[in-house]
Amino acid sequence: MLSDYTQTEFSHEGKTKPVYVRGHGPAVIVIHEIPGITPNVTRFADWVVDAGFRVYMPLLVGEAGRDVTIPYVLKSMAAICIRHEFHVLASNRSSPVTGWLRALARHAHEEAGGKGVGAIGMCFSGNFAMSMMMEPSVMAPVLSQPSLPFPFGAARKAALHVSPEELANLKTRCAKGDKVLGLRFKGDVTSPGARFETLRRELGDGFEGIEIDDKFANPKSPEPKPHSVVTEDLIDEDGQPTKEAAKRVIAFFVERLQAA
Q1: Dist. CA 81–CA 77, nearest whole Å
Q2: Sign, Cα dihedral of 160, 112, 104, 123
């Protein structure tokens, strides 16, 4: 499914990572979930391309194009737990990789042009789009099942995995009219409801949260419990809550990046 994408590399401060690029229009950075850029992550990226955007898909862990299996998930999870780029238990600071992602956003905006850049993070990368808003060009952040910090204890369940400086910037931008969109399944313990409660309290009308009942998850998903809203647990049929959530994400990008 990646045959239509151009594989490039992007470097910042000595860190070089593969990036898969396709499309024309304002830039949207699609940040994959665990275990990597799977076929269903690519399917979602294709929908974004079809809506008139230029997608940049960085590979942060795992392999590009490989299907989801439980051993592959566990291997990728172990990798992010030990790599210094990810602080999986940090409540009040973000992962260092977000600095690289902000630089990628600047590069994508310069290359693609337009009003600004969209970004969607999923699972372990779910909250990264908030930290990326320290880069002024990032105008359409989406948090899909944000799972960091790993929710061990009440404090981490409600935490946002951003630094105080990043949260203050986010609140200022939302007070001036910027928006944040979030998605999760109601029963997802890895992306707790308390996290969305924090977002509503901190951002007020600047946060739009979509929470889907678990019964609407794809019964053929390889995941043991509903988790991946726009990928593995999505039912690709109009009217299904997961498909409508994916459409809302793309509409959000259109509103923030394309609308006059």
Answers
A1: 6
A2: positive
Q: What tens digit of pLDDT does each residue of 50-105 get?
A: 999 999 999 999 999 999 999 999 999 999 999 999 999 999 999 999 999 999 99
**Helix (H) or strand (E) run with residue 9 in it:** strand 6-12
What is the number of other CB atoms lying within 10 angstroms of the CB of residue 191?
27
Query: In the CATH scheme, what is the homologous superfamily, with its name and number, of domain 6-258?
Result: Alpha/Beta hydrolase fold, catalytic domain (3.40.50.1820)
Distance CA 225, CA 221 (A): 9
pTM higher than 0.90: yes
Instruction: In whole angstroms, give the CA distance from residue 221 to residue 68.
Output: 10
Single out the residue of 59, 12, 70, 9 nearest to residue 36, CA to CA: 59
CA distances from 3 to 33, 46, 65, 135 (A): 20, 12, 10, 30
Per-residue model confidence as pLDDT tens digits over 90-137? 999 999 999 999 999 999 999 999 999 999 999 999 999 999 999 999
Give the residue from 44, 84, 40, 43 showing the smallest Cα distance to 61: 84
**Residues of the chain with pLDDT > 70: what percent?**
100
CA distances from 151 to 15, 156, 232 (A): 29, 5, 21
Quote the tokens at residue 237: 């049929």
Strand 180-185: give its sheet, edge to edge.
Answer: 6-12, 15-23, 54-58, 27-31, 117-122, 138-144, 180-185, 207-212
